TrEMBL record:
InterPro entries: ABC_BtuC-like (IPR037294), ABC_transptr_permease_BtuC (IPR000522). Belongs to the binding-protein-dependent transport system permease family. FecCD subfamily. GO terms for molecular function: transmembrane transporter activity. GO terms for biological process: siderophore-iron import into cell. It comes from Actinopolyspora mzabensis. It is found in: Cell membrane. GO terms for cellular component: plasma membrane. The keyword Ubl conjugation does not apply. The chain crosses the membrane at residues 33-55, 93-110, 122-144, 150-169, 181-202, 222-248, 269-296, 308-330, 337-357. Gene3D superfamilies: ABC transporter involved in vitamin B12 uptake, BtuC. Residues 1-29 are annotated as: Disordered. Keywords: Cell membrane, Membrane, Transmembrane, Transmembrane helix, Transport. It comes from the Bacteria. This is Iron complex transport system permease protein.
Length: 363
């Protein structure tokens, strides 16, 4: 029986390569503890955010109101205070959960498809497409409101999907690889952003309104916004969570995935469509909120390993928690004034992500 010292060098190389190829990524199993920690973080931040707001309802009275709703007891709030809580504050917190979850899960999917932890949900032109569409609507119809309902919302949703669709058409016509798709996304984003700037100059008085939308905002007039974003997010989440194993296989390379019976092109298209749907749904009700889809999946990867069977569902939970916390800061830091939530996510996400990159490089 020959030991490894008598084997040819090429045999040893093939054996080592095969071992690396079939080694399962660290943290490839989704454990109940992963979900429990994410659910706990989301629940705590959601409760604190519901108790906090510009209107002084009193956290004890809000807790009593929540208990009264669960047990059928007597509400300690007046009719006006109850309307503030259930028609403004609670829907806004729920919307923050949904938007944060949508951006984080789509960011995880983009990072898996492109095998790059620096990919984010706006990589293929969703942000520039939505920005151009909203700008056209606002300049053409000055009376339109930039709340999260109505024509501007529809324009943002269609514009985000249109930007991604244009990138896909250009990228696929130039070549089948993901690098070509990324370059097409850069070109489309630059073109649509230039078009948006040109349209803005046609009606300069609308610049402030458009700028505030571009910085991101979570405003509600009831539960309409929540019901609007929920279908797209639910469908995208089901697809992306089911594709966690396929994302792991794509990470081994197209040849390896094809050898295992996977069609990389079709899988990649399915995942990108689902992730773009989630991104468009989030953008349509909240504007452009950066760093959520970039930072959250990266943190989950560093903490739990590189398997997307873990990264996708856990990012969903922590993305919601992250944006709830950011929205709470946006509402309270300069109260009664309110900061755009995109400013908060940039202030917290950019330095933290730079620190992560520095520590990862040292490791």
């Amino acid at each position: 029986m020959r030991d490894s010292r008598t084997l040819p060098a090429h045999t040893l190389g093939a054996s080592a390569s095969s071992s690396r190829r079939h080694r399962r990524p660290r943290g490839s199993t989704l454990r109940p503890s992963h979900l429990l920690i994410g659910i706990a973080a989301l629940a705590v931040l959601t409760l604190v955010s519901v108790l906090t707001g510009a209107a002084e309802l009193g956290w004890q009275r809000v807790l009593a109101e929540l208990g009264a709703q669960l047990t059928g007891g007597v509400s300690p709030l007046s009719e006006r205070e109850a309307a503030i809580l259930w028609q403004l504050r609670v829907p806004r917190v729920v919307l923050a959960v949904l938007v944060g979850a949508a951006l984080a899960v789509s960011g995880a999917a983009f990072q898996g498809v492109f095998r790059n932890p620096l990919a984010d949900p706006y990589l293929l032109g969703a942000a520039s497409g939505a920005g151009l569409s909203v700008t056209i609507v606002v300049t053409a119809i000055p009376q339109v409101t930039l709340g999260s309902t109505g024509l501007a919302q529809v324009a943002a949703f269609l514009g985000a999907l249109g930007g991604v669709g244009l990138t896909w058409l250009i990228g696929r016509s130039a070549g089948p690889d993901t690098a070509t798709l990324v370059l097409a996304g850069v070109a489309v984003s630059a073109f649509l952003t230039a078009a948006q700037t040109f349209v803005q100059q046609l009606r300069v008085e609308s610049l402030q309104r458009i700028y505030m939308w571009l910085l991101g905002r979570l405003s509600t007039s009831g539960w309409y916004e929540v019901l609007t974003v929920l279908p797209g997010l639910f469908l995208a989440t089901v697809v992306l969570c089911a594709c966690g194993r396929l994302l792991d296989l794509l990470g081994t390379g197209d040849e390896e995935a094809a050898a295992l019976g996977i069609r990389p092109g079709r899988v990649r298209a399915l995942i990108l469509v689902a992730a773009s749907l989630a991104t468009a749904s989030a953008v349509s009700v909240a504007g452009l909120i950066g760093f959520v889809g970039l930072v959250v999946p990266h943190l989950v990867r560093l903490a739990l390993g590189g398997s997307y069977r873990v990264i996708v569902p856990v990012s969903l939970l922590f993305g919601g928690a992250f944006l709830v916390g950011a929205d709470m800061l946006a509402r309270t830091v300069m109260a009664p004034a309110e900061l755009p939530i995109g400013v908060i996510t940039a202030f917290t996400g950019a330095p933290f992500f730079a620190l992560l990159l520095h520590t990862s490089r040292r490791r």
